[in-house]
Structure formats: structure tokens, C-alpha cells
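Before relying on records like the one below, remember that each one covers exactly one chain. Contacts with other chains, cofactors or solvent are not represented anywhere in the record.
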Amino acid sequence: MKSQTHLIKKPEIPKTLYGPSHLTAHFFLFQNVAKFHIIKPMKRLFKYIVPVILVAIIVGIAYKAGFIDLRRYPVATGPKQVVLNCTYHGQKLTINENLYQSVDEYYASDPRKMRLDYKSFVSSNSKDLTIKDLTQKIKVKGTELGLSSDQTMDLATCFVQNIPYDTEKAKIVLSQNPGDKLTRVTQREYYDRFPYETLYENKGICTDKSYLEAAILKEMGYGASILTFNTEKHMAVGVQTPKGYTSFNTDYSYVETTSPGYKVGQLPSIDKNTGGAKKAELDKVSGSQGNELIPQFPESDFSPPSEIIKISDGKEYQRIIEITNDINRLKSLVAEINSANTGIAAYKTELKNAEGQAQSARDELSQAESKVNNAKNIYKSDSTEGNYASYTAAYDEYQSVYKNTRSVINGYNSKVNQYNSAIGQLNGLIDEYNKLIKSD
């Protein structure tokens, strides 16, 4: 059989693989792979992950700037008892506060301190009931003493005023020394303190004590504000009072917290070295001899507040009317006492001169009396007309001296009565003055 030979054809190579369009095919293949394995995951990444990162960055910045607080309120550890003092209505009063180091450190590390937002310093964590409890203790004291609502507010102010002034902190805060300025912004103990910190440390400067006072007034239901004074480098509290009785033509009356004795509406004189208010109490007058004049009622040259930061709406402090009337009366009494003292000093001079004249008159009368007795004895021993005439002349002279002496002594007694009357009036003024300055 004859074999047949078949030509074997080479298989054709598809043009799609090795032809001119093979690059396009690879591109579309890569595009599909990139689309499903790279681009879509990246889109999901930018859609979900990147916003989370941005939010985290923003939150971190806001936390450091003090706009948000991510911390948890701590468990109370490290107990410490602080005793607050006040002398009111002549009674020495105390309140015991149980505080904790962990809570103090919580406030000490509060990021809001970097903002210097005055209003935020008056606030407390919602879980911290310290101000609420302290205010309630003060109210209980007020009830025990039979105080009105406004007097109880004065009692609260008394407790705050008697918290020791932090002179060392004030020295750093007020200093213009570059080293002190660096210390002030880098060390926490020189930052403004929240009310809890001021209670825990049991000391503070004008800012610290003002935040505490404002927090208590708010808790008591009063309209309150923070008042700043750039010229005096000072801070105080304002309590809402009736129109016509406010300070600086605002809605509030001034409340000083750095020194005991200041009443609502009474402006202080600031010690430039310490930044605190100088002694408030007027000295009690103990004498009535007219030797020294009482200093004029202290007046303040305080400038109007640079800023008024409203803390709370609430009731008005009505007792400012009584206090204003008392202060006006005190000013009148100072003038009246000084005038009476001046008058008494003049009376004393006149009385001294009259006493000398009376003594001279008594000496002259004594001499005239001796002369009469001597003439009388001579006449008795030798009853001549000449001795009788001498006796009669001596007697007539005695009568004249006696009449003059009586007039001089009556004048002296009249001045004594006038002096005693002036002393009585002065003592009455002094009693009223001492009663007013002693009143709380």
C-alpha cells in the first residue's frame, strides 16, 4: 500500500497575543487588577481611615488647647481635711472640708488652664459636689445664727476672705522678671486654680479666691460675675444689686475676697507689692480725750473694671442698701467725731486757762481772808478807831475779792460743764461709730 504523506501545518499564533494590540490588552488587564485590588481599597482607606486620623489630630489639638477634656473623673484617694475659718457676729466659726489629692491633681492637670477662660474656672466636674456641699454647710451655719439670705452670703464671703493669701504665688505672678515670667507659664502651681484647688491648698491669690467666691454665689442663687482690673492687676467678684447701689455703674456691686473685713460694695486699696487688698477694718475708737483725730474714711481710687464676665443670673443682694446707708453714716460720724475732737481740744485749753485763773482767784481770796483776820485780831486786842478803820478796809477788800473769785469760779465751773457735755456728745458719737464698724 502506498503510504500517503500529509503536510503538517504550523499552528497560527493568535494576533491578539503577539500582534500589534497586545500592549492594549495588558493595559486593560492591569487596569482591572488595579481597580479591584488597589484603587478601591485606597478609596475605602481615604473614606474611612483618613477622616478618623484627621479627627484624632483635631481632638488632640483641641485637648491640648483646653477646648475638650477626655479625662475620667478620678476615684477619691489621698484624703485631706481642710478647716475654713470666719469670725462673724463676734463668733469664731469653722467648717471642715474633706478633700482628696486625686481630685486636686485632676483639676491641676485640667487642659482648660491653657486657655485662661475665666468663666470655665468657676465650673466643676458634674461628679464633684464639693461646692454644693460647702454651700449647704454655710447655709446651715446661717440658719443656726438666725441670718437672712443676704447675711448668709456675707458669711460665705467671710469664709473665702479668711483663706490665707498666697503671697509667694502673687510675687511670681506680679513679677516682671524674665525668670519669674518663665516660671509662671511652665509650673502648674502658678496657674490659676479651680475652686477645688483653692480649698485643697487652703490658699490663693485674687484670681483663685474670686473663682471660689463666684462659684459659691452661683450655688446660692445670686447673679454673679467676675470683674477684672488691668490697671490694678486685680480680680474681684460682682454680685447683682438693685439699681442705684451698684459699683462702676454696672449691674453688680464689688466683692473683695483677698482680705477679711471688706463688705459688699466697699472698694479696697491694693498693695502693689502683694496684689492683695490692704487692711479693711476701721480702727475702733477707745478714747474720748480729744487727743487724736480719726483718719478719714478710706476712699478707693479704683479704675472701672476692664472686663465683666457674667457667671450666673439670679437674685439681687438687697442688703447693699443697708450697707450703703451705714457707710454714709460712718463717713458723717468720722467728720462729726473729728469736729468734736477739735472742739474738745479747744475746750481743754480754755479749761486749763480758767483753772489757772480760778486758782489765782482762790489764792487772792485766801490772802484777803488772812488780811481780814489779822486786822480783826489787832482791833480786838486794841480797839482804837484807827484799828477799826483798818479792819473795815480789809473786810471791804475781802468782799470785793470774794465777789471776783466767785465770778471766776462760776466761769470755770461753766466751762467744766460745757467740756463734760461735749465729752458726753463725743462718747455718743463714738459708741455709734464703734457699733457700726463692728457690725457684720
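The CA atoms of residues 210 and 383 lie 100 Å apart.
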